[in-house]
Amino acid sequence: VRGADFTAAMVFMVASTNLVVELGIVLWLLLGWQFALAEFVGGAIMIVLLGLVLPRVIPEAWLRQARDELSDSTDHGGAHEHHGQQDSELVMRPWRERIRSRAGWSEASGFTISDLTMIRKEMAAGFVVAGFAAALVPTWFWRAVFITGHGFWSSLENVVLGPFVAIISFVCSIGNVPLAAALWKGGISFGGVVSFVFADLITIPLLLIYRKYFGAHLTLRLLAAFWTVMSIAGLATEYLFKLANIVPANQLRLTSTTHLGVNYTTVLNIIAALVFTAIYATYRTSRHSIDEDVAPYAKDVVCGMQVEKAHAPARTSHGGKTFYFCSDRCRHRFSADPAKFVSGVGLESMGAEPAGAAHGEAVVDPVCGMRVPGTESALRYEYAGRDYLFCSGGCRDLFVGDPIAHLIVARDPVCGMDVTVAGATAVARHDDLRYVFCGVGCRDAFVTDPQSYLSGKTPGAELHQITSTPSSLET
Fold first, then answer.
1. Which residue in 76, 228, 397, 430 could disulfide with 450, CB within 3.0 to 4.6 Å?
2. Residue 199: which of 145, 158, 239, 240 has the closest Cα?
3. Four-CA torsion 88, 300, 71, 395, nearest 10 degrees
4. 96-100, 279-283, 290-294, 360-364 — which one is most confidently predicted on average?
């Protein structure tokens, strides 16, 4: 959407998914160093092939149409001039300063826990699927599926079927390595394992995402191109490694880790457990002491990934707070049902002026999330009988255009109840503004005579005033 060439964007996706250190480490531990090396060799081959293939199989007209549709649907919800000012203040400190500070270690621990949170489901799914595949699927079945003993033709069949197994197994990223180990033990060729690992980009969940973003026709071409390139890369990697005589034997052998009575696997497990405990303790003790408004990082409330605010791919404002996301997909999920991902929203966090705000107590701008002093000079706007304060005329203008687009909870102008916007059962429009209601009865009363309910007082409040003061009673 931001102008990059489509092939370059797809190459970025391949590199950021497969040419990563953590995947190499897991491959090395579960399969051997040859597979870790093959990840990077095969990845380089894939990138070259994609550069040759994609521009020739996907028409430019399809790309223009997909880009236009994505541009029309991409709205960063409050990404206006104020965010540029905020982001300029969130400058990354030098690494030498960060490594000597508690805040720096807090940021690092936050990344670790966020990454674990983000991939926990696929890691669990990968080990569960691999466990069933290894324990319940007999070895003869894999050997029947992946033909052996026919030289080049066996290798070709294996690298073509490897991606198919990845597609139907639903396992992505690091989670597919345990299954790759099970397949390798079952008899798939070295190149077949490589093509299977790369095929985490064409599993069914990802194909559905491609279809949502790019359309069905482009997704089918992309699937065919990826599948072909992954198979060729796996085959080429296998024969390069055969030429270098570094292809391992086609089975998993458990090597001894015991020497002089010490089990090194157990020792490493204990060390890893202690390190992780320290990281988690740092994360738990520091995350509440960090001022989220000035911290350079934020947590994607949808997937759990830690995002650098200044370069967040997507953001939106809700309930007087700016939320940052790793992708437009997470932002769309949040916008569809904010209450699912946000809880504990009070009037102040919604941007509404609480009692005493006029004496200087700060409230939150419902558009950009900036704290605004509740002084008489503050920019205000009344909506549904409640005052909202803003840091600038730009934020107020955005709010005036459609207030409930920036609120998680809004006031029912008839009965005065606070209503969750995403779960509102009744909505009405008056003077080009939308209002939410606790029920159909309040909505119907509002539609009958809107002006009588937009004075800032509820019928209950007026009744209380009449029964409390003689002057009002006489009136």
1. 430
2. 158
3. -50
4. 279-283
